[in-house]
Amino acid sequence: MAKSKEKQQKNELLFNKQKYLLMITGLIIIAIGFLLMVGGGTDDPNKFSYEIFSFRRITLAPLLLLLGFAIQIYVILSKNKTRETDSSK
Predict the structure, then answer these.
(1) Is 12:50 a contact under the CB 8 Å cutoff?
(2) CA within 20 to 30 Å of 57's CA: 34, 50, 68, 72, which one?
(3) What's the pLDDT tens digit per position in 49-84?
(4) Which of 31, 30, 12 is nearest to 72 (CA)?
(5) What is this structure's pTM?
């Protein structure tokens, strides 16, 4: 009987489907945040471009990064409801 419990625990995933979807969503939001930060430079080193100080790069992209990382932290730290009920038996 102990071996069958060990086999069930080995085959069980760490997160459920909803948590994996949230984790993928967080990763996509983080990727979008990094993509929004890209660019803004000039080809001519003698010219200064104020494009690097745009709302998109200074405000929107870091907020998306924080949101994505907050989602990741939530997914990792929240308890899995199905694991709680299984472990209480």
Answers:
(1) no
(2) 72
(3) 888 889 999 999 999 999 999 999 999 999 877 655
(4) 30
(5) 0.74
